[in-house]
Amino acid sequence: MILYHFTALEYLDAILAEGLTKGDVPLTQTQGDNAVWFTSDTAPEGHGLTDGHVLTVEEREAYRRSFGEALSEGARFPDKRRVRIEVAIPSSDRRLKSWLPWARKRLSPDWLTALSAAGGGKAKARTWFIYQGAVPPTLFRTVMVCDAAGVYQPHTD
Questions:
Q1: DSSP structural state of residue 25
Q2: Starting from the edge strand earliest in sequence, which strands make up the sheet with 128-131, in order?
Q3: What whole-number distance in Å separates Cα of residue 132 and Cα of residue 114?
Q4: Which residues contact 5 (CB under 8 A, 6 or more apart)?
Q5: Sign (positive/negative) of CA torsion 96, 99, 100, 102?
Q6: Domain parsing of the chain, residue ranges
Q7: Is the CB of residue 1 less than 8 Å from the CB of residue 89?
Q8: What whole-number distance in Å separates Cα of residue 20 and Cα of residue 99?
Q9: Model pTM greater than 0.70?
Q10: What are the tens digits of pLDDT across the range 18-57?
Q11: For residue 81, which of 24, 5, 154, 132 has the smallest C-alpha distance?
Q12: Are 33 and 27 in contact (CB under 8 A)?
């Protein structure tokens, strides 16, 4: 199965060396599970990925309420749309889960609705997968970086 993982440029060197090993799958507003997120969609838009903007006062306050830690003015989340990694994972791999059926068994209905809405709604959520394990670089088919014009180009060292 061909899937895509979007991430920030800041994380790319570690990913190329170690593979995709970390991911936060929110089970509640304050608890999560480590699994790698994927989508069958080639475009990053509409999946709730951070775009690297400076956090607003409201976003910093929401972060403080959720995690009990204050962020300074000028704090920003990394641009998780910048890098697109295409992987080939056998659909028979039991560590690969279609997100919606997996989430329906584990998340409260309200939280599932909130996550789906934040990530573009059910249409986008149907494209999501999680992988409960490490994905080695040997499974990467392409690594692309979004240029200033918004076009993905092959990553070069």
A1: E
A2: 96-98, 128-131, 36-39, 2-7, 83-88, 140-146, 152-154
A3: 22
A4: 20, 36, 37, 38, 39, 84, 85, 87, 135
A5: positive
A6: 2-154
A7: yes
A8: 17
A9: yes
A10: 999 998 888 888 888 899 999 999 999 888 888 888 888 9
A11: 5
A12: yes
Nearest alpha carbon to residue 85 among 10, 22, 140: 140
Query: Could you tell me which residues come within 8 angstroms of residue 63 by beta carbon, excluding any fewer than 6 positions away?
Result: 55, 69, 71
What are the angstrom distances between the C-alpha of 147 and each of 1, 35, 54, 83, 107? 27, 28, 20, 10, 37
What is the 3 state secondary structure string of 43-83? CCCCCCCCECCECCHHHHHHHHHHHCCCCCCCCECCECCCE
| Residue 7, C-beta contacts closer than 8 angstroms, at least 6 positions apart | 15, 80, 82, 83, 85
Average pLDDT over residues 130-147: 96
Contact 22, 36 (CB under 8 A): yes
